[in-house]
Design a protein that fits this description.
Elements lengths: L6 E3 L20 E5 L3 E6 L7 E8 L2 E4 L2 H7 L1 E5 L5 E6 L6 E3 L3 E11 L5 E11 L7 E5 L3 E7 L10 E4 L14 E7 L7 E7 H6 L3 E4 L3 E7 L6 E5 L2 E14 L2 E6 L2 E4 L4 E3 L2 E7 L11 E9 L2 E2 L2 H7 L2 E5 L2 E7 L6 E7 L2 E17 L6 E15 L3 E4 L7 E9 L3 E8 L2 E2 L2 H4 L5 E6 L5 E8 L6 E6 L2 E14 L4 E13 L6 E6 L3 E7 L8 E5 L2 E2 L2 H7 L2 E4 L3 E7 L5 E7 L2 E12 L5 E10 L4 E4 L4 E7 L12 E2 L9 E2 L3 E7 L6 E5 L2 E10 L18 E9 L7 E3 L29 E2 L7
Parallel strand pairs: 11-30
Antiparallel strand pairs: 1-10, 2-3, 3-7, 4-5, 4-9, 6-7, 8-9, 9-10, 11-12, 12-17, 13-20, 14-15, 14-19, 16-17, 18-19, 19-20, 19-21, 22-23, 23-27, 24-25, 24-29, 26-27, 28-29, 29-30, 31-32, 32-36, 33-34, 33-38, 35-36, 37-38, 38-39, 40-41, 41-45, 42-43, 42-47, 44-45, 46-47, 47-48, 49-50, 49-57, ...
The chain binds 2-acetamido-2-deoxy-beta-D-glucopyranose (7 copies).
Length: 752
């Protein structure tokens, strides 16, 4: 198959072809090669016009290469797997000039018609030397014909396969016209039965058989499906057989030679990911007993494959119980691949031109060579695209490879989470994309995208574990039609890299401040709760909360008495309140909590507790005449302060005690008492009746008659409204923030 001694003359050939004037030949338009037994001419698909034809010329005879004539005469024309026009011409074809069996020439005219109806003709004189000497018997199974040629024996050689026969009674010419062909054909409805039909050469010609002779060879050729050929079933396909003997006369001797031909009609099919072509190891009529395989060579696209290359590309030949199996990985180099989108699936068609040279020796022939040419097209096979996940979570980026694409597929777009990845921004966002060639003429794409990319989604799984998810779609363009194929690539990776949000708190003059440090997961995944109430805008408004989002934390100021605060106690140090702040993860329900306790100094306060206690602090400062807090008491003078300091007195008592008066008002009960000054009398000055106290602070709590009591906090100077308001003797006004409040300060839940 060496490119050797290829002459493609386009010398002026006016005399030969008066109708056509040769045009100059564009570079790269034609490729010619000399193969074992045929001329090989390829015409680039790029230059093919609307219409074109190939003519051959021998002397003054010109023939268009097509149809029956081409098949009978040894010409094969068609498109190769790359779409180029291909002409194969047997060295023994009609109109080929045979130079003493060692050099062959043929004059070919390529006539191209362009869209403007203009025709251009290119003459090509193909010349090929014989590189591989002729063998005793050579068979060809072409796409459109079968051919056999054998040595023309001279009588002294007594070869097997050539038999001496008693001269026929009829006088024979030396000429071809007198030759006879004996066809053997099966007898219908009689298994194994054969009958013979002897026809003269002229008759055989009419039946579509080309018979001729060269200096050294006898030739028989016929298109497939000729009369007197028959099919033998083999597997699902058949083998077409022409069983023929030619009788010819040489120097007074009548010779017969077996000119049988057989070609497998089997097609290739997909088997797993391979293209599988099976053919019988023994072809009927061609293999005589005890044959010995002498060689088997496979070629694709017009070239033999060395064992090494075949191995590299994954081609295989097996002898499987009488069946030769030739396997070619779908898409392997040597053929061509065309990609499509069929029903949304990535599919490919594979075209491969295969040829096979088989050589064997048997009892009849010292060597038989058979050359088989077959063009296979395997169409629309759904092809898998592999998404290879090469992500190493600790590297904090996704690494995804999509494999494997033939050259007619290129990446157009990548969308992540429905958003196109903008190439210009890729580098800035740390995204890297590469196209990587593979040894088998395919390529893959590798996309790396950092976990931190805004289009990578994150999900907190709990226990500081975070799942990163890349939902990508790779969008490919298929040439030449511009079809678009989208392939999803969804990968995820888990990493324990979560810094949880953290809660802190502090006391302010006005209330409690909670600080929620964000941590490193989306703060919108967390809900902030105050005293069990979710922080929403309603709570913010009702409670008078104020929010301030800082870079690293959110600060929430909760005013004293706001919803969410809990009453823990009232003492001389002040009012003890607490806030339970919690952050709850919406999905995992994982919770962070913090309790912030604060003491607010108070001078006066009345607390009505749900358990029925009243806790009250009064301040006697500024009362005139002065009142010693040690000398204050409730309606029951035995109920004395729990604690005192220089001006304040703290009482705590139950509504059932200390002289508390309960009055029913509808479905409410009003409990009244008061703090008064009750100075002890000197023992020697015991009066008959108690003097009217000059210091009286009315106290009151209102609770529902039936049902649960709630906590209420008031300034003693502003007791609950249902109380008959009788202002005290208290004259001094107290300064302090609590006095700015309304009569009933907000309620605080009771603390634990
Ligand atoms: C047979 O071959 C001879 C010479 O090779 C050629 O001149 C002749 O035309 C051929 N016969 C046919 C029928 O093609
Ligand atoms: C081999 O093929 C023959 C005939 O086709 C069949 O009878 C035989 O079972 C096959 N042997 C194996 C091992 O497949
Ligand atoms: C090409 O090579 C890659 C990697 O070795 C392999 O995965 C792929 O299947 C091959 N494709 C073909 C068509 O041989
Ligand atoms: C690229 O993406 C856009 C939508 O973002 C889509 O309309 C277009 O078809 C894509 N192009 C290719 C070549 O994939
Ligand atoms: C991809 O790789 C990561 C990291 O090795 C692994 O966690 C994940 O399960 C893999 N598969 C997919 C489909 O994301
Ligand atoms: C009240 O009594 C306590 C102890 O009985 C005493 O220490 C304190 O000084 C008294 N306060 C006043 C203002 O008298
Ligand atoms: C009263 O409190 C109890 C226990 O806390 C509760 O089960 C009940 O529903 C409350 N009743 C009303 C009317 O709120």
């Amino acid at each position: 198959m060496v490119m050797y001694y290829v002459t493609w003359l386009w010398i002026i050939l006016f005399g030969l072809c008066p109708s056509s004037i040769p045009d100059s030949i564009p570079i790269g338009m034609f490729r010619t090669e000399c193969h074992d037994r045929h001329f090989w001419l390829s015409i680039s698909s790029n230059v093919l016009g609307n219409k074109f034809r190939i003519n051959v010329q021998g002397g003054s005879e010109v023939h268009e290469v097509s149809g029956q004539w081409a098949a009978e005469c040894g010409y094969t024309i068609g498109f190769d797997s790359w779409g180029d026009l291909l002409l194969r011409v047997s060295y023994l074809a009609c109109l080929v000039e045979n130079q003493r069996e060692t050099e062959f020439r043929v004059l070919v005219w390529f006539v191209n018609q362009y869209s403007n109806k203009e025709e251009k003709s290119y003459p090509l004189l193909l010349t090929c030397p014989l590189q591989v000497p002729w063998g005793p018997r050579e068979l060809v199974c072409e796409e459109n014909y079968m051919e056999v040629s054998v040595f023309k024996h001279s009588p002294p050689d007594n070869h097997i396969g050539v038999e001496w026969v008693t001269p026929a009674p009829v006088e024979l010419d030396e000429g071809l016209r007198e030759w006879r062909v004996v066809f053997r054909i099966p007898v219908l409805h009689q298994e194994g039965g054969m009958r013979e039909e002897t026809v003269p050469v002229r008759m055989a010609h009419l039946l579509g058989y080309y018979i001729n002779t060269t200096d050294t060879r006898i030739l028989l050729r016929c298109p497939y499906g000729s009369k007197l050929a028959y099919m033998l079933q083999w597997g699902e396909a058949g083998v077409e057989v022409v069983s023929a003997t030619i009788m010819y006369k040489l120097k007074w001797t009548l010779l017969t030679v077996d000119m049988s031909m057989a070609c497998t009609m089997s097609q290739a099919r997909m088997d797993g990911s391979d293209v599988l072509w099976s053919l019988p190891r023994n072809l009927p009529t061609l293999f005589h007993p005890s044959f010995i395989e002498k060689g088997l060579k496979l070629g694709v696209g017009g070239r033999y494959l060395s064992e090494c290359v075949a191995h590299q590309r994954g081609y295989q030949i097996h002898d499987n119980n009488g069946t030769l199996e030739i396997r070619i990985p779908f898409g392997a180099e040597g053929g061509s691949v065309q990609s499509h989108v069929i029903d949304g699936r990535f599919s490919q068609s594979y075209f491969v031109d295969v040829f096979l040279l088989r050589e064997w020796e048997d009892a009849a022939w010292s060597l038989t060579q058979q050359r088989i040419f077959r063009a296979f097209s395997i169409r629309h096979v759904p092809r898998p695209i592999t998404v290879i996940n090469m992500t190493v979570p600790s590297l904090r980026e996704f690494s995804v490879s999509l494999c494997c694409f033939p050259p007619d597929v290129s990446l157009g777009n990548v969308t992540v989470a429905g958003q196109p990845v903008v190439w210009e921004e890729m580098e800035r966002n740390g995204v890297r994309l590469s196209q990587n060639p593979l040894p088998n003429n395919t390529h893959s794409y590798l996309l790396r995208i950092p976990f931190s990319h805004p289009l990578v989604s994150q999900k907190y799984l709990g226990d500081r574990l975070r799942r990163y998810t890349l939902s990508g779609v790779f969008s490919f363009i298929l040439t030449p039609d511009g079809e678009i194929y989208d392939h999803p690539a969804n990968v995820e990776a888990d990493l324990q890299d979560v810094v949880l949000p953290k809660l802190e708190g502090e006391c302010t003059v006005w209330g409690v401040r909670a600080l929620a440090y964000y941590g490193n997961i989306d703060s919108s995944e967390w809900s902030l709760y105050f005293g069990g109430m979710r922080l929403d805008w309603e709570l913010v408004e009702l409670g008078g909360f104020s929010l301030d989002a800082k870079e690293h934390y959110l600060s929430v100021d909760v005013p004293l008495y706001a919803h969410g605060m809990a009453y823990e106690g009232l003492g001389m140090q002040g009012l003890l309140v607490s806030v339970l702040v919690s952050l709850v993860h919406l999905e995992t329900a994982e919770e962070q909590t913090h309790v912030q306790r604060c003491v607010f100094p108070v001078r006066e306060l009345l607390v009505c507790l749900p358990d029925g206690r009243m806790v009250v602090m009064v301040d006697t400062a500024g009362v005139s005449p002065p009142v010693n807090p040690n000398h204050t008491a409730l309606l029951d003078p035995a109920c004395r302060p729990l604690e005192t300091d220089h001006s304040r007195a703290l009482f705590s008592f139950h509504i059932d005690s200390c002289g508390t008066i309960a009055t029913y008002d509808g479905d409410q009960v009003i409990y009244r008492n008061e703090v008064r000054n009750m100075p002890p009398f000197p023992p020697h000055l015991r009066p008959l009746s108690q003097p009217q106290p000059h210091y009286r602070v009315p106290l009151g709590c209102v609770h529902p008659a039936n049902g649960n009591r709630s906590l209420a906090i008031y300034l003693p100077s502003h007791p609950p409204t249902p109380l008959p308001l009788k202002h005290t003797h208290k004259t001094a006004s107290h300064t302090g923030h609590l006095e700015d409040r309304d009569d009933k300060i907000k309620s605080l839940p009771v603390g634990g």
